[in-house]
Design goal:
By secondary structure, the protein is mainly alpha-helical. It is about 70% helix and about 0% strand. It has 4 helices and no strands. Helix 3 packs antiparallel against helix 4. The longest helix has 20 residues. It starts with a helix and ends in an 11-residue tail after the last helix.
C-alpha cells in the first residue's frame, strides 16, 4: 500500500469524502443563491415569487439529498 500511495496510485477515501462534502456544500450554497440573483436581474419579481423559487430549489435539493430524485429514469438512488 505504501508503494502504491507513493506513486500516487492510491486514493485516500477520507480525502475524497472531505472533497465531496465541501463540493456539495459549495454547490448547495450557489444554487440557493439563484433566487436572489434572479431578483437582481429581473427586478419586477415579487417577494412571493422569490420565495416560491427558494422553496422549489430547497425541495429539489432535499429530494436529491434523500435519494428520492423523481426525475431519475435510471432508478439510481
Amino acid at each position: 500500500l505504501r508503494a502504491i500511495e507513493s506513486r500516487g496510485q492510491l486514493v485516500i477515501a477520507v480525502a475524497i469524502q472531505a472533497f465531496n462534502v465541501a463540493l456539495m456544500a459549495a454547490l448547495r450554497n450557489r444554487i440557493m443563491g439563484v433566487p436572489s440573483e434572479a431578483k437582481g436581474q429581473i427586478p419586477h419579481l415579487s417577494i412571493d415569487e422569490i420565495e416560491i423559487l427558494e422553496g422549489l430549489i430547497a425541495a429539489a435539493l432535499e429530494e436529491v439529498a434523500d435519494g428520492h430524485d423523481d426525475d431519475d429514469a435510471e432508478g439510481y438512488p
